[in-house]
Amino acid sequence: MKIRGVRINNRRKAFEVRTSSRRMLLPFAKVAPKPTATDPVVQVFVDKEIGSEGFGYVLRSGRAGTAHIEQVLEYNKDPDHLRDQLLYKLTIEVQKRLAASALSRRELIRRLGTSATQFYRLLDQTNYRKSVDQLVSLLQILDCDVQLVVRPKTA
Fold first, then answer.
1. pTM assigned to the model
2. pLDDT of the chain along its 155 residues, tens only?
3. Which among 60, 75, 90 is the end of a domain?
4. 86: domain range?
5. Domain total for the chain?
6. Buried/exposed code over 74-97 (b: 16+ C-beta within 10 A; e: otherwise)
C-alpha cells in the first residue's frame, strides 16, 4: 500500500496519513525519535526511497525519523492488514510442518483435492490471495489441531 500524502496535526499530536482508500492517524508517541513541544516536527514528506510505503520527518533539533505504512496499519487495526498477518503466520507454520511431515507432496495435493500449482501457491508466504480455510485444511491433513484463541489484550 502506498502513501499518497502525510501532514502534521499538532492539535492531535499525530501524523495524518492518506492512502488511496483512507485516512489514518499515527500518534507522535508511536514513532522514534518522538516529537515533543520543545522539539516539534518541522518537515514531513512521503519517502520515495522506500517506494512511497512510508514517510519521513525532521524535528527542529535536526533529528530525523521514518515510519512505514505497516506501523500505521497496525496501529489503526486495519482488517486487511490483520488478515494478511494471519495468512503469513499460518503459511510459515504450514512450511514448518510440511518439512517435518513424512507425507509426500503428491499425497497432500491429492488429499486437498487441488492442483499442484494451487498447492504451491498455498506455500508461498507472499501470496495473500489464498484463504485461511485452505491453510487450515492443509494443516489438518498434516495432523495439526488448529484452534483460534481470542483473549483480551494485555497492556
1. 0.73
2. 899 999 999 999 999 999 999 999 999 999 999 999 999 999 999 999 999 999 999 999 999 999 999 999 999 999 999 899 999 999 999 999 999 999 999 999 999 999 999 999 999 999 999 999 999 999 999 999 999 888 998 87
3. 75
4. 79-141
5. 2
6. ebeebeebeeeeebeebbebbeeb
